[in-house]
Automatic annotation (TrEMBL):
Residues 196-264 form the Mechanosensitive ion channel MscS domain. This is Mechanosensitive ion channel family protein. It holds the Pfam family MS_channel_3rd. The lineage of its organism: Bacteria, Pseudomonadati, Pseudomonadota, Gammaproteobacteria, Oceanospirillales. Signal peptide: none annotated. It comes from Reinekea marina.
Length: 427
């Protein structure tokens, strides 16, 4: 391109001879001004082209695709940063055409344009990754739990290191490979500086490969005070929004080295467990007498059970010729056993209990506080508020139904009980 430069110089040189400093010096500055004006002009052209043509074409193309691609492409300055790369390349090309490669101005412009191109190449890559991340997150709502953010952050980190090495190599005029070979001596320091990103990358790969955690999961990790929804999985940290709306930040590698509870299985199953006991006062447990049987036979939930069981028991006792005058002889129904069957029937007929999951009413080992009767069942919803209401309604009914079976809840003596006893002794 020296011919083009020489022809231009021949044209403008007569006009510059009358200026102080000579035509040669003013010619160089004239070329620099021309390059600057051309760069500004190119910036305006690219801006208008992207705004009026590329945007319309992208809108037409993305309208046929699923997801909000247009928003993702234009929300991360992708085309703006790419246009800056083009501008840097054009400025460098113009300097090759119009300037002497041995001149100081050429070297300055070439160095500045090289750094400019490298910077905006890196930023353009960041924008591409951010666009990919945005599209991925919109598609992830369909069940894709791969935590891509940590992988993308790793790519950004490696790209930044590589571009930084290339920029330094251009500055000192050495090959990037020479700088890379020198990093071997600093490997121990590099491992120490980038320990958390490396551990975070390893943790992210293990979490994703084993499908252990994803954004939106309910995470419980008492060691770090975390109990809530996962809102972000980054390269080195995992953010959890607790139920009290506080944010807990957990090191990503801690999810591999320590144990945590992920409630996703409960959410996906469609049912949430009820596992709660009522403590029955053991002194209230007894055999059913005629009066209590007559009352319970009228119950819709336990009446049929009593009829069938009484027939079986009477038939067996007659077959064995058992003397039923003695209370402990033969088989008899108890109020606690009848109550357990009543609860089973009650839960089986409850509209909010999941019928395809485990349903039990079981008796646990007695303690000094009474006999625990445990309700073990699952609701047909995983919503926290609905679950608590269903559980409360069930136990409201259980507490209210206990007197019908002549059973009592165990309660430790309170201050009011002591005062009542004291008053009765005085009287």
């Amino acid at each position: 391109m020296s011919n083009l430069r020489d022809e231009f110089k021949v044209i403008v040189e007569p006009w510059l001879e009358f200026l102080p400093g000579g035509a040669e010096a003013w010619f160089e500055w004239l070329v620099v001004a021309w390059i600057g004006v051309f760069a500004v002009f190119l910036h305006i052209v690219l801006h208008l082209f992207v705004r009026h043509y590329v945007a319309n074409w992208i809108s037409l193309w993305t309208s046929k695709l699923k997801g909000n691609w247009q928003f993702s492409l234009f929300s991360h300055n992708l085309f703006r940063r790419a246009s800056f790369v083009i501008q840097g390349a054009v400025v460098q090309l113009q300097s090759v055409w119009w300037l002497d490669e041995g001149s100081t101005i050429f070297k300055v412009i070439k160095f500045a344009s090289d750094q400019w191109i490298l910077l905006f190449l890196l930023l353009t890559l960041f924008s591409v990754l951010d666009v990919f991340h945005g599209v991925w997150n919109r598609r992830a709502s369909g069940g894709n739990h791969f935590p891509i953010k940590g992988i993308l952050q790793t790519i950004k980190l490696l790209a930044s290191l590589f571009i930084g090495l290339v920029a330094i190599a251009l500055l000192i005029g050495k090959s990037p490979l020479l700088l890379l070979s020198g990093l071997g001596a600093l490997s121990a320091v590099m491992m120490l500086v980038f320990k958390d990103p490396i551990l975070g990358l390893v943790a992210g790969i293990q979490l994703s490969a084993n499908d252990m955690l994803a954004v939106g999961d309910w995470l419980e990790m008492p060691k770090y005070g975390a109990d809530g929804d996962v809102i972000d999985i980054a390269l080195t940290t995992v953010k959890v929004r607790n139920w009290d709306k506080t944010i807990t930040t957990i090191p990503a590698y801690a999810l591999i080295s320590d144990s945590f509870k992920n409630w996703r299985g409960m959410t996906e199953s469609g049912g949430r467990r009820i596992s709660r006991s009522v403590l029955i006062e053991t002194s209230s447990i007894r055999f059913l007498d005629e009066a209590l049987l007559a009352d319970l036979n009228k119950s819709e939930l336990v009446g049929r059970y009593l009829s069938e069981r009484l027939e079986q028991i009477e038939a067996e006792n007659k077959e064995k010729n058992v003397d039923m005058a003695v209370l402990v002889n033969g088989r008899r129904l108890t109020n606690i056993g009848t109550f357990r069957q009543y609860l089973v029937n009650y839960l089986q007929n409850h509209p909010c209990i999941h019928k395809d999951m485990t349903l039990m009413v079981r008796q646990l080992a007695p303690t000094s506080e009474g006999l625990p009767i445990q309700i073990y069942a699952f609701t047909n919803t995983t919503s926290w508020g609905e679950y608590e209401n269903i559980q409360a309604d069930i136990f409201d009914h259980i507490f209210a139904a206990l007197p019908a079976f002549d059973l009592r809840i165990h309660e430790s003596p309170t201050g009011n009980d002591i005062r009542s006893l004291k008053d009765s002794l005085k009287s």
